[in-house]
Design a protein that fits this description.
Distance between the termini: 90 Å
Structural class: alpha/beta
Number of strands: 15
Largest sheet: 8 strands, mixed
Strand order of the largest sheet: 6-5-9-3-10-11-4-12
Helix content: 40-55%
C-alpha cells in the first residue's frame, strides 16, 4: 500500500485521475443521500421493489467503489493493454443489457410487474443487439457500454417526462419536433421520482465500472481491419433495418401495436420493443384496394350524387365575407362538456353570452393533451388524422403542393396569411405552409419584444391585436383569409409566477386553477376581438376552435369524469376529444348551439356558410357529414345521434370510411396520379 502511495505521489496524471474518481463517487453518494426521502417514500408504496431500494443502492455503491479503487491500484502497479473481445465480455454485455431493460421499465412502466416474461427476454435481446452494433462501431466494448448506459438513462427520462406532460408516449416522429419542445420546455415543472433517482445512481455506478475496466476490442491493429469492422456494423445495421421494416416480426411474437395508444403498447411489451413496433408503422401505405381507377370512380360517384344537391347553408343569407379569420386556440377546452369543474367563477362568460350571429358547439379532434399540428392539418385540408396514428403529415408526408382551404379561397381572390406567435420552424411549418401555398407567414420574430406575455408566451390579446394590425394594413375591400394559431394556453401549468384568479373549488389542483385562469384571460381576448370586428363595415367571419384538450393531471380528469378514462364509455371518452368551436359573423346569420362536428369537416362547413364556390371534395365532405356528423380514431357520431366505435361499425360505414381514406391518400401521397380536378373549384380545374 505504501508503494502504491509513493507511485501515486510521483505521477501527477494519476493524481488527477484519483481526484476525479473521488469527486465522482462523492457526488454520487451526495445525490443518493439527498434523495433518500424519495426512495423511502417508494418503499412505503411498493414493497417488493422499494423496501430495500436505498440499502441495495448503498451496498452497490460500496462494492463499485471498492472494485474501482482496486482496479486503480492495479493500474498504478501494472499498465493494462487493450484486450481482444472474448466470451467473458459477451457475458458482461448481456448482464448490462438486462440492467438497461430493467432500469428503463422501472422508470417508465408502472405495469412492469405484469409483463409476460418472454417479452422481457425479447427486450433484452434487442438491447443486446444494439450493444453489439455499438461495440462494432466504436471497436471498443468499454466505450460502447458507456454510451449505451448514458443514452438509455437519458431516453428513460424522455419517455417518462413526455408522457407525464403530454399524456401521449414519446414516438420516433417526435424527434422532428425537438425545436417545438425546446420552445415550451420552460413551462413545465420537472420533478424527480424515486425511480429516476435509483436509475441515475445505477447509471453512474455502472458507467464508473466500465470506465475503470480494461478495454476490449474486436481488432487491435491495422487500419484496414478496423475499417472492415465498421463496414460489418453498417451492413448489419442495414440488414437489420430491412428485416425490421419488411418482416412481420411483431406478429410472430404476438405483438399488437396500438398505434393510437403507443403507451399501452410500451407497457405491455416493454418500452424498447414497443417503441420499435410502433415506429415501424410511420410509413403511410395505401388503403386496402386502393387504385387510381377506384379513386376516379369514387370521385365521379360523389359528383353524381351531389349534383343539384344544396350543400351551401342558407343561414348566412346572400352575404359573402370579405374577411375570413380562422383561429386555432391552443389547448382551448371546456371541461363542462365532461363534468362540473366547480370553478369559483365562470371562465367563458363572454362566449356563453354570445347568442346572435353565431354557431357554436364542439369539434371532434384526433388528439388530446398535445398534437397541435394534427388538428391544424385536419382543418386546413379536410383530411382526417385517423389515418395517421402517431404521425404528423406536415413532418412525415409533405413533399409537394397540397390542396386545402387555402388554395380554394385563393382561387376566389383571397389573400392567404398564416400567423403563429412562435418559431416558424416548429412542426416544419415553414415548409408545410409553402406547400399549402400561403402568401405570407407571420411568426414570432415579427412580434415586438415588448409584446404582452403570460408564462413567457404571447398572450391571446396581443395575438389578436396583430390580427387587427394585418387587417388594417390591407387595401380596403381586398378579400383576406387569415389562419392563426394562438400560444397563450399551452401546457404546462406549473408556473409559480402566474397568479391564478379562477379556482377549481371541488378539487385541489394548482395546475387546474392556472389553466382555468388562462381560459378566463382567453375569453376576455375573444371579447376584444369580437367587439372590434362588430364595428367593421366589411363583412367578416371569425371561426375559432381548440386544437386539443390540455394536459392536466390524470387524477383531475378522473375526478371530473367520475372514473378513470379507460373505464369510461365511448361517448364519455369522445368528450375529451371535443374542443369548443364557434363561427361568428358581423352580419346577420341564423344562430345554432350544441353543434357536433369534427375538425376535418369544419373548413368545408365554414365555406358552405359563405356563398363561395365549393370544390367537389368540399361537397364530398359535407355529404359524408350527413352520414357521420363527426368522426375520429375512436369512432364516429352517427346520424341518429349515437356514438359507435369503428369495431361496431356496419359494412356501409366501414366502406364510406375506406373510400374517404382512398381520397385522402390520393390527395396527400399519390402525386403522379392525383385526381386534381376533385380538389379544385370548377373554374380553376
Amino acid at each position: 500500500m505504501r508503494l502504491l502511495y509513493e507511485k501515486l505521489r510521483q505521477d501527477k496524471k494519476q493524481q488527477g485521475k484519483c481526484i476525479r474518481m473521488i469527486l465522482y463517487f462523492g457526488v454520487t453518494l451526495g445525490f443518493l443521500l439527498w434523495e433518500k426521502p424519495l426512495l423511502d417514500e417508494l418503499a412505503e408504496k411498493r414493497e417488493w421493489n422499494g423496501s430495500y431500494l436505498f440499502a441495495g443502492l448503498l451496498v452497490a455503491y460500496v462494492l463499485v467503489l471498492a472494485v474501482c479503487f482496486v482496479r486503480f491500484a492495479k493500474e498504478l502497479s501494472q499498465k493494462r493493454s487493450v484486450g481482444v473481445m472474448g466470451w467473458p465480455q459477451a457475458v458482461w454485455m448481456m448482464v448490462n443489457s438486462v440492467y438497461l431493460f430493467a432500469a428503463m421499465e422501472f422508470v417508465t412502466n408502472q405495469e412492469f410487474e405484469d409483463m409476460v416474461w418472454y417479452y422481457g427476454l425479447l427486450n433484452i435481446g434487442v438491447i443486446c443487439v444494439f450493444c453489439i452494433l455499438m461495440s462494432l462501431i466504436f471497436n471498443s466494448i468499454k466505450r460502447a457500454m458507456i454510451f449505451m448506459n448514458i443514452i438509455y438513462f437519458c431516453m428513460s427520462l424522455v419517455f417518462y417526462y413526455v408522457y407525464l406532460f403530454r399524456g401521449e408516449a414519446f414516438q420516433l416522429i417526435d424527434l422532428y419536433s425537438l425545436g417545438t419542445a425546446a420552445e415550451v420546455i420552460g413551462g413545465y415543472h420537472f420533478q424527480l421520482t424515486a425511480q429516476i433517482v435509483a436509475a441515475a445512481v445505477g447509471m453512474l455506478l455502472i458507467v464508473r465500472l466500465w470506465m475503470s475496466d480494461r478495454d476490449y476490442c474486436f481488432v487491435q491493429r491495422q487500419i484496414k481491419y478496423k475499417i472492415l469492422v465498421r463496414l460489418v456494423a453498417v451492413a448489419l445495421t442495414i440488414g437489420g433495418y430491412l428485416a425490421y421494416m419488411n418482416l412481420n416480426w411483431n406478429a410472430q411474437f404476438g405483438i399488437i401495436s396500438d398505434l393510437w395508444n403507443p403507451a399501452k403498447t410500451y407497457r405491455e411489451y416493454g418500452t424498447t420493443v414497443g417503441f420499435l413496433a410502433v415506429a415501424k408503422y410511420m410509413r403511410l401505405t395505401p388503403p386496402d384496394g386502393y387504385s387510381e381507377e377506384e379513386v376516379q370512380q369514387i370521385s365521379e360517384q360523389s359528383c353524381s350524387i351531389n349534383e343539384g344537391k344544396e350543400l351551401k347553408m342558407g343561414n348566412a343569407g346572400n352575404v359573402t365575407p370579405v374577411n375570413i379569420i380562422a383561429i386555432m386556440n391552443e389547448s382551448w377546452f371546456d371541461y363542462r362538456s365532461v363534468g362540473d369543474p366547480m370553478t369559483s367563477e365562470s371562465y367563458m362568460p363572454f362566449l356563453d353570452s354570445l347568442n346572435e350571429n353565431i354557431i357554436k358547439g364542439y369539434t371532434l379532434t384526433c388528439t388530446k393533451g398535445g398534437g397541435t399540428a394534427k388538428t391544424e392539418y385536419e382543418f386546413l385540408t379536410g383530411n382526417s388524422c385517423k389515418r395517421f396514428p402517431g404521425m404528423v403529415p406536415y413532418v412525415s408526408y409533405f413533399t409537394h403542393d397540397q390542396y386545402s382551404i387555402v388554395t380554394t379561397l385563393q382561387d376566389q381572390g383571397y389573400q392567404a396569411i398564416a400567423m403563429h406567435p412562435n418559431k416558424a420552424t416548429n412542426w416544419k411549418r415553414t415548409t408545410a405552409y409553402r406547400f399549402l401555398n400561403f402568401d405570407d407567414f407571420i411568426a414570432i420574430d415579427q412580434f415586438d419584444s415588448s409584446t404582452e406575455r403570460y408564462r413567457n408566451m404571447i398572450s391571446d390579446q396581443a395575438n389578436y391585436e396583430k390580427i387587427i394590425e394585418v387587417y388594417e394594413q390591407k387595401e380596403k375591400g381586398t378579400p383576406l383569409f387569415l389562419f392563426d394559431i394562438t400560444m397563450q394556453n399551452h401546457s404546462g401549468y406549473t408556473n409559480k409566477y402566474f397568479q391564478a384568479d379562477v379556482n377549481c373549488e371541488g378539487y385541489d389542483c394548482d395546475e387546474a386553477d392556472q389553466y382555468f385562469s388562462l381560459l378566463k384571460i382567453s375569453d376576455e381576448a375573444i371579447e376584444y376581438l369580437i367587439e372590434y370586428f362588430e364595428q367593421v363595415e366589411e363583412p367578416t367571419m371569425i371561426v375559432m376552435f381548440g386544437d386539443h384538450s390540455p394536459k392536466l393531471p390524470d387524477e383531475f380528469e378522473t375526478w371530473i369524469a367520475g372514473d378513470e378514462y379507460k373505464n369510461l364509455s365511448l361517448e364519455e371518452q369522445e368528450k375529451f376529444y371535443g374542443t369548443p368551436f364557434f363561427i361568428w359573423t358581423n352580419y346577420e346569420m341564423e344562430s345554432e348551439e350544441n353543434v357536433w362536428i369534427s375538425t376535418n369537416y369544419l373548413s368545408s362547413y365554414m365555406l358552405s356558410l359563405t356563398g363561395l364556390e365549393l370544390t367537389p371534395y368540399n361537397e364530398y365532405l359535407l355529404s359524408l357529414r350527413e352520414e357521420m356528423p363527426a368522426l375520429n380514431h375512436l369512432g364516429f357520431l352517427s346520424e341518429d345521434g349515437n356514438w359507435y366505435s369503428w369495431s361496431e361499425a356496419g359494412k356501409e360505414e366501414l366502406e364510406l370510411e375506406r373510400q374517404y381514406e382512398c381520397l385522402q391518400y390520393n390527395e396527400l401521397m399519390d402525386r403522379n396520379d392525383r385526381i386534381d380536378e376533385f380538389f379544385l373549384i370548377e373554374n380553376n380545374e
